[in-house]
Amino acid sequence: MERNGAGLLVLPGLLLFSIFMFFPLAYTFYLSLTNAQPTNVFAGDGLRGDEQFVFTEVLGLQLPIANYVEVLSDPAFWNSIGVTWLFVVASVGLKVAFGIALAMVLTSDRIRGKRYLRSVVIIPWALPPIFTITIWSGVFSSARFGLANQFLIWLGFTPQAFFTDRWLAFTTYLITEMWLAYPFMVIITVSALQAVPEELIDAAKVDGAGYFSRFRAVTAPAIKRPVMFAGILTAAASFQQFLIPYVFNRGGPGRDNELIILYGYREAFNFNQYGAGAAIMLTAVLFIAMFMLVAVWKGELAEGVNN
C-alpha cells in the first residue's frame, strides 16, 4: 500500500519529465523520417503538417530512413563527427589537467587565503556562457588591438587572424571551453583532494617519496573516480557545444570546424532541411548516449550502486 502511494506521488513528476523530454525526442524522431521543411511542416493544423515520409530501399524493403542514409553518406557529416570527437578529447584533457593543477595549488599548505582564492576561481561559472564567449571572441579578435594579438606582438611574433585559420580557430575553441568548464573540475578535484587521508601522504614522505612520486602513488589513485566522473560529465557537455563555434566564426573557416550540434542546426535552420537536421541531432544523441554508457562502464563508476 505504501509503495502504491509513493508511486502516485512520483507520477506527476514522471509525467512532466515525459512531456519535456520524451515528447520532443519522439517528435524529432518523427521529423527525421520526413521531408519536413518550413513550407510544409507549418502548413497543416496541430502537430501534423503536410510533411511526408521519405523512403529508401533497404534489403528489398521500403523504409522511411532516407534522411539518415543521406546524412551518413555526406562527407560534411563525418568531418563534423571527427572534429567533434577531437574537440571532446582535447578539451577534456585540458580541463582535467588544468583543473587538477589549480586544485593542487588551492589545497597546498603553502598558499594563504585559499578560501578567498576558491571563491575567485569559480567566478567564471557564475557568468552567463554567452557573455564569457563573447568576451573571448574579442580576446582572439583578428585586429591588432585584440588581447591575444597584443600578447603575440609583445613576444615578438606576427599578429594572427585566429578565426580564418582552421587549427588556430579550433585552438581558440579549446581555450574558451576550458575556461567555461574549469571551475566545475576544480570544485570536484578540491573536494576529492580534501578526502585523501593525510596518513598516507605522511607515510609516503617518511619513505622518502618526492612531490610527484606522492602524487602518482597516493593522490592520483585517491582522486581518480571523482575526477573521472567530472571528466565524463564535461565530455558530454563538450559534445553538445554550440555557442563557441557559432559566436566565434560559425564553425569556420568554411564548414571545417562545425561541431555536430552546429552542423545539425545549420542544416535545419540555414538550409531549411528540418528532416535532415532532426536526423543529425538524433544521431548526436545516440553518440552521446553510447559515450556515456561506455565511459561509465569502463570507468566502473556505477560499481557499488544498489540495483
UniProtKB/TrEMBL annotation:
It comes from the Archaea. The chain crosses the membrane at residues 7-30, 83-107, 119-139, 227-248, 274-297. It comes from Natronosalvus hydrolyticus. Residues 81-295 form the ABC transmembrane type-1 domain. One of its GO terms (biological process) is transmembrane transport. The keyword Translocase does not apply. This is Sugar ABC transporter permease. Keywords: Cell membrane, Membrane, Transmembrane, Transmembrane helix, Transport. InterPro entries: ABC_transporter_permease, MetI-like, MetI-like_sf. It is a multi-pass membrane protein. Belongs to the binding-protein-dependent transport system permease family. Signal peptide: none annotated. PANTHER family: ABC TRANSPORTER PERMEASE PROTEIN, INNER MEMBRANE ABC TRANSPORTER PERMEASE PROTEIN YCJO. It is found in: Cell membrane. One of its GO terms (cellular component) is plasma membrane.
